[in-house]
Amino acid sequence: MIDILDQQIKKGAEIIKNGGIVAFPTETVYGLGANAFDEQAIRKIFEIKGRPQDNPLIVHISRKDDIYIVATNIPQKAFELIENFWPGPLTLVMKKNPVVPDVVSAGLDTVAVRMPAHPVALKLIDYVGFPIAAPSANPSGKPSPTKPEHIKMYFGDKVFVIEGQCQLGIESTVIDITSDPPVVLRPGGLELEKIKDVLGNIIEFSSEKLSEKPKSPGVKYTHYKPDLFLILLRKRDDIEKISSFIKDHTRMIFVMTYDFDVSFQNQFRQKFYSLQVDFIFAGSDEREIAKNLFDILITKTTGYDLMIFEGVNEQGIGKGIMNRLKKAADVIV
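RE: above sequence
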């Protein structure tokens, strides 16, 4: 099996070196990668994803020292974060080395960089021999893939897929290190509490003007939208508030978090007796919920016209989960 996987990685590396694109696993989600220095190859990513041109990509490296290839004027705080959290689910926005094509950074003078903590991703970058630029491997606006079958659902045979699993299930945390204090552009797989322990003061990004180019993926455009109407229910006790939103729907899937309370399920069915309701369990803690999040949004929609997804505590990785659910939801209760 290891030999087969290694053959896949080598084939993927050859595709990238020849100007193609490849879907590969990271510890967060699947990436859709191309040579970070090949402008035409990068444009293929935008084309197949239907991605807006002003939405920058993340450059992935396999060695810490490779940061000098893609970034310049690197501040000391960046090195502190690198020492503590790379490889891992942390993306740093820094001043761009001019050798990185503008299409990668959406014309900005900054570049987003990370070193993934997945053996397949690291070996692929090593075999390619240069950094790989990669967004998540999904059509723009759809939930990010965490399994090979998700990519095949999205793209069929249009993209070569290296087999693997993603351990975390949501994308990396993104920090703009060009600001002082640094700014969190996107919460994600690395808890902000850990970053604060290293840096002290950081600013949590709250909104971005639509007229401005985003410095990071996942902050401006619609993301993570499943193929049905989605209600984010912050608290189970607020179930009364959803009545007006579900009246035009006929079949619902209810995603429970933390516990799979059967008595609540019975009460819910009695209250909304006109609906067909199925219940599924996302996980008993934030780590498990994060790992299952996108798989649920991608694969648990067939046959339903409404999904209710219970919220989680907005601390630790829960902040990243809620960031994704808020962007995916049609209604937040």
